[in-house]
């Protein structure tokens, strides 16, 4: 009766039905109700703006290259700089989310990196171009706050969907900018500006968009269903955690490291392709700048449905097969993506390359959504840092791939794409080693010791912390994550008094 009463109260308080943590149990994409769906829309729009800014340069590279006398190595280094800046920024963003909340962490980073986008307009050398791309790339760390925010707002049953759509629609910026920047450039050029002036003025558009999105997140967003971190800490409703403890439980959880590796070869590959694909079609198939931009845009625009599709697929298979289904689906989809990447590097006609790229983009981006269908369950206490580690892994993968295959003239671009596909396949294999004792893994079922969700998540809290009640949020999360058992929800034991024996 008490639980029914609390659920009834929660239903009256929020526009969406919620669980015991007040996380939404339904995802209504056409709603903008506060706080759940408003947070969703603010997160993906702000992340979208950062993607537009970070990848505003590639579609205009043929013009920028001539203006700044950039060599192939200069362009490769700038592309690497754009994605390397966010490696440590994403880990830092995860920590900031754990300690200060996603609203403040996200808005601060977006606003701090906006000046780099403005400064691109006055870049006059290879070094200055590299630097502005490097500092602009820091903004991609907002991906972590996006995924953390969605995991804080939506329950286990729909968290894969929420993460997938928010991340996917944000990533759309990587495709949209391939259309936006050539169009803006053409309009400014037709008005009367020279080519070398038009590309500079064009950068003011993504810069202003990014700055405005930062203010929207800060003034309209909310960290958690029950309020912002500052007020929850002040009222005592939320424990103000210790950074060293949060960091320790993240870095000692091997599951996070494996997901970081595999994410490096789905999202990392996506970043790499965003950097190289327009120039690849321009140089290899001799299409014009506008056509190359449209072809390249189609890769990123597939995020409209592909990454969300991966998140939705993760939730669907989890209903029947639980966490084991999420992991298996991730391995299958990402491996197929690797095979398609190999094919993209092998085909020699324009039409076949476009088809291979489009199909590859669907599987590559769906794997990203599937990854973050599993990430929220790795740790409750260190969710932010685990998200940051995984997101940072994406950037590390992009950096390594570009350094090895697309920097300078050691490999032709098509050969580099083929080898990148082989790396995807190899780096996806470790998924089979991820194992949750309460749910099992890709190859093995749950532990025969009868361990529960409470056993798993309570290990992150000391006896003293539990005596002070700091673990209560993890207890609620453990109860709500029982759906990860799949159809065998009743097969694992649950402590009668709700308190596990550690």
How far apart the termini lie comes to 29 Å
- What is the count of helical runs? 23
CATH superfamily of the largest domain: MFS general substrate transporter like domains
CATH class group of the largest domain: Mainly Alpha
In short:
The protein is an all-alpha fold and 502 residues long. Helices cover 70% and strands 1% of the residues. The protein folds into three domains: 33-222, Growth Hormone, Chain: A, CATH 1.20.1250.20; 246-451, Growth Hormone, Chain: A; 453-485, no CATH class.
Topology:
Blueprint: H1 2-13, H2 36-54, H3 61-68, H4 72-84, H5 86-100, H6 102-119, H7 126-137, H8 142-153, H9 159-191, H10 195-202, H11 204-220, H12 229-235, H13 243-251, H14 254-263, H15 267-284, H16 289-301, H17 306-346, H18 350-374, H19 383-405, H20 413-428, E1 435-436, E2 440-441, H21 453-458, H22 463-467, H23 472-480
Antiparallel strand pairs: 1-2
Helix pairs in contact: 2-8, 2-9, 2-11, 4-7, 4-19, 5-6, 5-8, 5-19, 6-7, 6-8, 6-11, 8-9, 8-19, 9-10, 9-16, 9-17, 9-18, 14-19, 15-16, 15-18, 15-19, 16-18, 17-18, 17-20
Question: Main attributes?
Answer:
single chain; 502 residues; Growth Hormone, Chain: A; 3 domains; two-stranded antiparallel sheet; disordered N terminus; disordered C terminus
Task: Explain how this protein is built.
This protein is mainly alpha-helical and 502 residues long. The protein folds into three domains: 33-222, MFS general substrate transporter like domains (Growth Hormone, Chain: A, Up-down Bundle); 246-451, Growth Hormone, Chain: A; 453-485, no CATH class. Helix content is 70%, strand content 1%. A two-stranded antiparallel ribbon has the order 1-2. The longest helix is centred in the middle third of the chain and has 41 residues, at 306-346. This is High affinity nitrate transporter 2.5-like. Residues 39-439 form the Major facilitator superfamily (MFS) profile domain. It is found in: Endomembrane system.
């Amino acid at each position: 009766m008490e639980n029914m009463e609390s659920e009834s109260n929660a239903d009256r308080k929020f526009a969406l039905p919620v669980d015991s943590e007040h996380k939404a149990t339904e995802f209504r994409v056409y709603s903008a109700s506060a706080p759940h769906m408003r947070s969703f829309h603010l997160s993906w729009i702000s992340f979208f703006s950062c993607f537009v800014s970070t990848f505003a340069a590639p579609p205009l590279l043929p013009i920028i290259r001539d203006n700044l006398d950039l060599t192939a190595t200069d362009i490769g280094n700038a592309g690497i700089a754009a994605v390397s800046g966010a490696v440590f920024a994403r880990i830092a963003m995860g920590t900031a989310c754990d300690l200060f909340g996603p609203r403040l962490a996200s808005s601060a980073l977006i606003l701090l990196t906006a000046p780099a986008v403005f400064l691109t307009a006055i870049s006059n050398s290879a070094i200055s171009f590299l630097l502005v791309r490097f500092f602009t790339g820091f903004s991609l760390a907002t991906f972590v706050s996006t995924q953390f925010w969605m995991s804080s707002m939506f329950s286990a049953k729909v968290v894969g969907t929420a993460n997938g759509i928010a991340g996917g629609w944000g990533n759309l910026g990587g495709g949209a900018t391939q259309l936006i920047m050539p169009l803006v450039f053409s309009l400014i050029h037709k008005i009367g500006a020279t080519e070398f002036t038009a590309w500079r003025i064009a950068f003011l558009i993504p810069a202003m968009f990014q700055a405005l999105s930062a203010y929207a997140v800060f003034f309209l967003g909310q960290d958690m269903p029950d309020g912002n971190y500052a007020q929850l800490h002040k009222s005592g409703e939320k424990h103000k955690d210790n950074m060293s403890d949060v960091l320790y439980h993240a870095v000692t959880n091997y599951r996070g490291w494996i997901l970081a590796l595999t994410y490096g070869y789905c999202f990392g590959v996506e970043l790499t392709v965003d950097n190289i694909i327009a120039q690849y079609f321009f140089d290899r198939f001799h299409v014009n700048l506008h056509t190359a931009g449209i072809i390249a845009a189609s890769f990123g625009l597939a995020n409209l449905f592909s990454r969300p599709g991966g998140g939705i697929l993760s939730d669907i298979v989890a209903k029947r097969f639980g966490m084991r289904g999420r992991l298996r689906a991730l391995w299958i989809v990402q491996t197929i993506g690797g095979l398609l990447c190999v094919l993209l590097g092998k085909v020699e006609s324009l039409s076949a390359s476009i088809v291979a790229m489009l199909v590859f983009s669907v599987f590559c981006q769906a794997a990203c959504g599937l990854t973050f269908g599993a990430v929220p369950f790795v740790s409750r206490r260190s969710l932010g840092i685990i998200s940051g580690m995984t997101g940072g892994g994406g950037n590390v993968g992009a950096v390594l791939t570009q350094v090895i295959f697309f920097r300078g003239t050691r490999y032709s671009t098509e050969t580099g794409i083929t080898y990148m596909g082989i790396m995807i396949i190899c780096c996806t294999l470790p998924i089979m080693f991820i194992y949750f004792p309460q749910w099992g893994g890709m190859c093995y079922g749950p532990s025969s010791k009868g361990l529960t969700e409470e056993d798993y998540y309570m290990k992150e809290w000391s006896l003293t912390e539990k005596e002070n009640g700091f673990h209560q949020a993890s207890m609620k999360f453990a109860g709500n994550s029982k759906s990860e058992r799949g159809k065998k929800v009743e097969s694992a034991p649950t402590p009668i008094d709700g308190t596990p024996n550690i």
